[in-house]
Inverse folding.
C-alpha cells in the first residue's frame, strides 16, 4: 500500500516535526543544561521570547495548552530556584503574575551555551535561504493552527 | 553575554517545532482519526513510512525513545484494535515481534483521509515547494541529530 504525493508530503512533514521534537526534548533532558529539564527550559524560553513581561498562571496554562496544576508545579520548581518570581497583581487580587528573574535569564543563556556545540553541527550544510523558508513555513502552520477554532 | 545568532536561529526553529508538534498532537487527539490517539497513530505511521512489515518491541521503543513498558501499552491497544499482531520471540523473556496487519494499513490510510480536510485548511497558503523544502531541511537536521553521540 503506497501513499499518494499529498499524503507522502504531509506524513513526512508531521513525522519529521514529531521526531525532532522528541529528539530535542530527550537531548535536553539528558544534558539538563543549567540543571533545567525540558519543561523548565521551555518555560524560561517562553519568558525570554515574550521579553519577560509578566504573565498570569492562567495565561501560561493557556499558552502551553497545559493544565493549571502542571504549570503550578513547574512554576513552583523554578521559583524555588529563584529563576522566576511570583508577584501578586495589585489591581487584581485573584491573579498572580509570573516574572523572569535576572538569575532565570542567566540560567537560560548558560543553558543555550551548553547546547551550543550541538546546535552548530545541526545547521551545517543547510543554506540560510532554505532555513528561512522552513521557519516561515513552520510559523505559518503554527499561526494558522493557533487560530483555528477548537474541535 | 548573549548567545550567537546561529544558536538563536536553531532555538527559534526548535521552538516553532515544539509548538507546532504540541498543537498538532492536541488537534489529532481531539479528532482521534480512525479511533487512534497520536501515540497509536505514530506507531502505524512508523511501519508505513519506513515500509516495514515487521519490527520488534525493543526496536520500536528505541526508535520512539520510549521505555519498553510504555511501548508495550501502545502495542496492546493497537493489537486490540486489530491494527497489529504481536508474538513472543523465542529466547527472549519480554521482547515481541510486531507485524502491521492489513486493517492496520487501512486504518492508517483512513486516518490520513479523516484529517485531510483539516490539514488542507491549515496548509492552504503554502505551496508544495515550500512544504517539500521544509521537509528536506527538517530531515537533514533530524539525521544530524540522530547521529550525534549519545543517541
Amino acid at each position: 500500500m503506497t501513499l499518494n504525493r499529498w499524503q507522502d508530503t504531509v506524513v513526512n512533514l508531521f513525522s519529521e516535526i514529531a521526531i525532532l521534537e522528541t529528539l530535542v526534548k530527550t537531548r535536553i533532558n539528558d544534558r539538563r543544561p543549567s540543571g533545567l529539564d525540558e519543561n523548565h527550559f521551555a518555560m524560561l524560553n517562553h519568558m525570554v521570547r515574550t521579553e519577560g513581561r509578566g504573565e498570569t498562571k492562567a495565561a501560561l496554562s493557556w499558552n502551553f495548552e497545559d493544565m493549571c496544576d502542571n504549570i503550578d508545579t513547574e512554576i513552583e520548581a523554578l521559583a524555588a530556584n529563584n529563576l522566576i518570581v511570583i508577584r501578586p497583581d495589585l489591581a487584581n487580587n485573584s491573579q498572580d503574575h509570573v516574572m523572569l528573574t535576572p538569575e532565570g535569564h542567566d540560567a537560560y543563556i548558560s543553558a543555550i551555551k551548553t547546547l551550543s556545540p550541538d546546535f552548530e553541527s545541526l545547521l551545517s550544510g543547510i543554506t540560510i535561504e532554505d532555513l528561512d523558508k522552513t521557519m516561515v513555513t513552520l510559523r505559518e502552520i503554527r499561526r494558522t493552527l493557533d487560530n483555528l477554532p477548537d474541535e | 553575554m548573549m548567545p550567537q545568532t546561529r544558536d538563536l536561529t536553531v532555538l527559534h526553529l526548535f521552538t516553532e517545532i515544539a509548538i507546532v508538534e504540541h498543537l498538532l498532537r492536541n488537534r489529532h487527539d481531539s479528532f482521534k482519526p480512525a479511533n487512534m490517539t497520536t501515540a497509536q497513530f505514530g506507531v502505524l505511521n512508523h511501519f508505513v513510512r519506513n515500509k516495514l512489515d515487521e519490527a520488534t518491541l525493543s526496536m520500536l521503543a528505541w526508535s520512539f525513545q520510549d521505555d519498553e513498558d510504555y511501548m508495550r501499552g501502545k502495542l496492546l491497544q493497537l493489537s486490540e484494535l486489530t491494527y497489529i499482531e504481536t508474538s513472543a520471540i523465542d529466547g527472549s523473556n519480554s521482547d515481541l515481534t510486531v507485524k502491521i496487519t492489513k486493517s492496520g494499513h487501512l486504518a492508517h490510510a483512513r486516518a490520513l483521509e479523516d484529517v485531510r480536510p483539516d490539514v488542507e485548511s491549515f496548509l492552504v497558503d503554502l505551496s508544495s515547494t515550500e512544504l517539500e523544502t521544509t521537509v528536506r531541511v527538517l530531515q537533514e537536521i533530524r539525521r544530524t541529530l540522530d547521529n550525534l553521540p549519545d543517541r
Chain A touches chain B through 62 residues (CB under 8 Å).
